[in-house]
Design a protein that fits this description.
Distance between the termini: 38 Å
Low-confidence stretches: 312-344, 356-393
């Protein structure tokens, strides 16, 4: 499940709980349900429409319904407002249909689709994709962006009427109280640091960049998620644990049982998994680009690394020299992971945030990072800063 779907499900949960009538229009796919159960127990109808898979990308489908057919769906349901989730093909036609029907629309920019298409090896389609997005969003009554970076990007691309819509995190689910030493022991030895990633295993998430972390001594990677790149990534990082798709309390327990969270993708419009990790008591590492810039206070709640530095650090000519020069202070049992002057990108961030052997500091760090909401309060930020200053050398 991607972030767009997760966001839609939370919206469904809210309106179902408040007693509003709602329906979902989504592309048909093999085995797809025609209803979904909201968290309050209500069943919500999902109207499936014809779609076709993108050649070579079985998980991506394009709706084939026309704007006229969508207008008939709108007239049948008679909504007061229409929520467009990351509109492009289906959402663009729905925006046209809503305009014709006189129904206001809220369009939410949840994913960097143009950037994702470029990562799939089709950079020549990036400009055309922005044209589609601009057309869909500029038909909407209001547009919502999840981060300042996304808002600025949309405005820079000629999209109008853009406001911020920040995300929350379920702190009744994600909590450091769920930490399980038994579960942690199944993935890492006591002297190792367990570094977690949660997300789809697809090109745009740049999970292959985690190879530079995989090769750090005393570190074990825990990768949660599924996708078409799973087998390739297994071959690239044979020591990593691939735990598959996790959700609910199972996901929350796995997160709380790790020592650090890392997300390498450079095209995140927000970064919901970063919030979930912070609510689980983990410091986080992400690129200094896009949504994570809003979420992470460097040296307080985590670290931001310069995009593309991780891949340069992992280059075949540079890696042996980097490893010899920089890992003297990273051996298990040493005083700490030291950030050397030449340490690049994610390797440097992990070195600063992964002290070796200081369990008391790690425990205090978890206590200081009890919820993503608390991270924005000065007192919590000061506590986090004191812990990370104590534990990093």
């Amino acid at each position: 499940m991607d972030g767009v779907t997760g966001s839609v499900l939370r919206v469904v949960d809210h309106f179902a709980a408040t007693g509003d009538d709602l329906g979902v229009i989504a592309p048909q796919r093999p085995g797809a349900d025609t209803s979904l159960r909201a968290s309050c127990g209500r069943r919500v109808r999902v109207r499936r429409i014809a779609s076709a898979p993108v050649p070579g990308h079985r998980g991506v489908r394009i709706a084939t319904i026309s704007a006229s057919a969508l207008r008939r769906c709108i007239d049948e349901f008679r909504p007061d407002v229409i929520h467009l989730a990351s509109p492009m093909i289906l959402g663009g036609r729905a925006a046209v249909a809503a305009q014709r029907a006189g129904v206001p629309t809220v369009a939410v920019h949840d994913a960097d689709v143009p950037g994702g298409i470029a990562r799939y090896g089709m950079p020549f389609l990036e400009s055309a994709t922005w044209w589609l997005l601009r057309d869909a969003h500029n038909r909407a009554t209001v547009n919502l962006a999840p981060s300042h970076a996304s808002r600025d990007q949309m405005l820079g691309r000629g999209i109008e009427r853009v406001d911020l819509w920040r995300r929350g995190v379920d702190t009744s689910l994600f909590s450091s109280a769920l930490r399980s030493e038994t579960l942690r022991a199944a993935y890492a030895r006591p002297e190792e640091k367990l570094v977690a990633y949660v997300g789809r295993l697809v090109p745009e998430k740049q999970v292959e960049d985690l190879e530079v972390i995989h090769e750090m001594p005393g570190v074990r990677l825990l990768i949660m998620g599924d996708g078409p790149e799973k087998d390739t990534l297994r071959g690239l990082m044979p020591r990593a644990h691939f735990a598959g798709f996790r959700t609910g309390t199972d996901l929350a327990t796995h997160l709380a049982s790790a020592d650090l969270f890392i997300h390498p993708g450079e095209r995140e419009t927000f970064g919901q998994t970063l919030q979930e990790a912070m609510a689980s008591g983990l410091p986080v590492i992400a690129p200094r680009r896009g949504g994570p810039v809003d979420l992470i206070a460097p040296s307080r709640t985590g670290w931001l690394f310069t995009p593309r530095h991780a891949r340069r650090a992992a280059g075949p000519r540079e890696r042996p020299a980097v490893r010899r020069r920089e890992t003297a202070g990273l051996r298990p049992g040493g005083r700490g992971f030291r950030a050397q002057a030449h340490l690049a990108g994610a390797r440097r961030a992990a070195a600063r945030l992964l002290p070796a052997g200081d369990r008391a500091a790690r425990s205090r760090r978890r206590g200081a990072l009890t919820s993503a909401r608390a991270l924005h309060r000065p007192a919590a930020a000061q506590r986090c800063h004191s812990v990370l200053s104590h534990s990093a050398t």
